[in-house]
Design a protein that fits this description.
The protein contains nine helices and twelve strands. With about 250 residues, the protein is of the alpha/beta class. It has a single domain (about 5-250), classed as Metallo-dependent phosphatases (Purple Acid Phosphatase, chain A, domain 2, 4-Layer Sandwich). It has a six-stranded mixed beta sheet with strand order 3-2-1-11-12-9. Strands 4-5-6-10-7-8 form a six-stranded mixed beta sheet, with no helix packed on it. Strand 1, helix 1 (about 15-25) and strand 2 form a beta-alpha-beta unit.
């Protein structure tokens, strides 16, 4: 299988997304798939949608993408405020141009999962592809949850959603990328691989996260980007809470 990149949770951060695409190009990757949450939180939803439509071979539906269509009633106030702002910005009217309609149709038509050989691609989990979080501590505190999740797929499952990269193995252990030296080798067993977040990391590392998949394993990449520019855009936008900017520089 040719090497390919997986990205997730872009969250309208065009500076981070552009840096990741450039990094993947330098790594010799020209096939890229996205596990959803193109929009939300950040200042540039339109530009991110356009870039994903051009550059990603496949995009999966995330919970923020779904909430744009169905409503964000179950979101926290910060996330809900930005989704409602995104809807006002993105939803086409009778007089809207073709590009605006194309963006909306693209998000509206995103699949919730995709299987390719031994790989299952979802945003959340195999049990609930859009909404369920697989947290790094679940193997300790909710082991039956992780066992049941492993019963719902074969091979490897790639996810995003938590903004926290790493690998869950069948022994219920979660392995952070630094502990793996940023490389997980395939050994024939099942695993859940979280690719982390491009646009809003929450593992304490503010650099954009993504992975490259090859025949033998997964390589975790972290990429610097112009955080200050993204923050400035958010602070200048009264429709986006300042928290969405402040958390970028600490990766939380």
């Amino acid at each position: 299988m040719p090497r390919f990149g997986i990205i997730s949770d872009l969250h309208s951060n065009i500076e981070a997304l552009g840096a990741v695409f450039t990094r993947l190009e330098k790594e010799g990757v020209d096939r890229i798939v996205c596990l959803g949450d193109v929009i939300g939180y950040g200042p540039d939803p339109e530009h991110c949608i356009d870039m994903v439509m051009r550059r990603c071979e496949l995009t999966i539906c995330g919970n923020h993408d779904e909430a744009l269509m169905r409503g964000a009633q179950d979101f926290n106030p910060v996330a809900r405020q930005v989704i409602e702002y995104n809807r006002r910005m993105l939803k086409p009217s009778l007089l809207s141009g073709s590009l605006k309609r194309q963006r909306w149709k693209f998000l509206e038509g995103l699949p919730v999962s995709h299987r390719e050989g031994d790989f299952l691609l979802v945003h959340g989990s195999p049990r609930d592809p859009v909404h369920e979080y697989i947290m790094k501590t679940d193997g300790i505190f909710i082991p039956d949850k992780i066992r049941d999740i492993f019963d719902h797929f074969e091979g490897l499952c790639f996810v995003g959603h938590t903004h926290f990269p790493g690998v869950f193995t069948e022994d219920l252990k979660f392995h952070d990328p630094p502990a793996l030296d940023y490389r997980y080798e395939f050994k024939g067993e099942k695993a859940v691989v979280n690719v982390g977040s491009v646009g809003q990391p929450r593992d304490g590392d503010p650099r954009a996260s993504c992975v490259i998949v090859d025949d033998d394993g997964v390589t975790f990449l972290r990429t610097d980007y112009d955080i200050a520019t993204t923050q400035r855009k958010i602070y200048d936008n009264p429709n986006i809470p300042d928290l969405c900017a402040a958390r970028l520089e600490i990766g939380k």
